[in-house]
Amino acid sequence: MSESTQPCAAEVEQCSPAPARVNSLWFDDGNIILVAEGFKFRVHKSMLAKSSPVFRDLFTVPQPTGPCCKDKDSLPVVNMPDNGLHLLYLLKAIYDRAFFGHNTLTATSVEIAIGIVSLAHKYDMRYLYADVIRRLADIFCTTFETYEARSHQRAGLCTSPIGELPKLAKVSIPLDPVFLINMARQIRTPELLAMLPVAFYHATSQSAESLTQGVVRNRLRAAPGTHGREALHPDDLRRIIAAQRKLVQVNRNATRCFHFHGAYLSPECAARRHSGPCYKGLQLLSQGVVDAGYLGSARPLARRDDWIDDYCKKNLDGKLCKACQENIKRLHKEAREKVWNDLKKLFDLEAWP
Ligand SMILES: [Zn+2]
């Protein structure tokens, strides 16, 4: 990651009781100073006004002129009621395309995206809001089709040895659903609310520490933890804990198509019963699924198609024909789609929060 994409500790003055100047957002020709929660920025009114009608209207109102409202260079100082880090991220997104450009780590950081989205919403920056929402929706998909496509793409980026879950962790997408869930609670925009079901689903695989103590804020800083932790509301934590057991049960239903039963074969092979090879093939596949631990998993949305392909190729020696493989994959997809459609109910989100 390039230096310009990191709001690292080195670019802010540390250990000062006064707000720390953010060097990358301190322009000598800036004509306004914004201060928010320990950070100060010297920026341009014209840039802010161009990006936001709220700022534009604010600047048309005569500003207070007392000594406390000016800095030593007689520039207007505006104390913002915003989260300082969120304002830093927002200003970075406005000024520095590399910071929140496509394919940068910051563009896939949920924490940063959520910080930007909250203020882009507040200051009515529609294009920026829509852009960040689009990227968040790539991670927190709102339809089963996109979820399937994204899972497939991510799994494709890494090797998936037989018998192991696809190693999604290898892909650098910091999945911090806590930030999204908390922001949806605050601003309740339809776009964030639509991402909640899958955000809760992702939250069930967070570590116990993250869930109970919160996720460390601002991971990109050199001194992590400076800004505390982002913790879930107790009601949301209850939803996640209550769902853990239900997910195991739901996964049992979603993996029923892997059981050794003729009904899961293609109609032709099912009709041939034990005279065809596919009965034996299904029996072996069923045992493979048990050995891989897929039946007792708490990840009912996990797609096993690649695993099936690998397993059939390496272990079944043509005993399960293509039509039967496709039949099992289709049944599994239908079962997963049902899980997807039930997520809201599963996490008790119908009357959320
Ligand atoms: Zn068959």
- Mean pLDDT equals 85
Shape: elongated
Number of helices: 14
Output the CATH topology of the largest domain. Potassium Channel Kv1.1, Chain A
Number of domains: 2
Structural class: alpha/beta
Are any ligands bound, and if so which? Answer: zinc ion
Summarize the structure.
By secondary structure, the protein is of the alpha/beta class.
Describe the structure.
This protein has about 350 residues and is α/β, with parallel strands linked by helices. It has two domains: about 5-140 and about 175-230, Potassium Channel Kv1.1, Chain A, CATH 3.30.710; about 250-345, no CATH class. It is built from 14 helices and six strands. The protein has helices spanning about 45-50, 55-60, 85-95, 110-120, 125-140, 145-155, 175-185, 190-205, 210-215, 235-255, 265-270, 280-290, 305-315, 320-345, and strands spanning about 20-25, 30-35, 40-45, 75-80, 215, 230. The strands form two sheets. Strands 1-3-2-4 form a four-stranded mixed beta sheet. Strand 2 and strand 3 (about 40-45) form a beta hairpin. The longest helix is centred in the last third of the chain and has 25 residues, at about 320-345. Zinc ion binds near residues 265 and 321.
Descriptive tags:
alpha/beta; 353 residues; Potassium Channel Kv1.1, Chain A; single chain; binds zinc ion; two-stranded antiparallel sheet; four-stranded mixed beta sheet
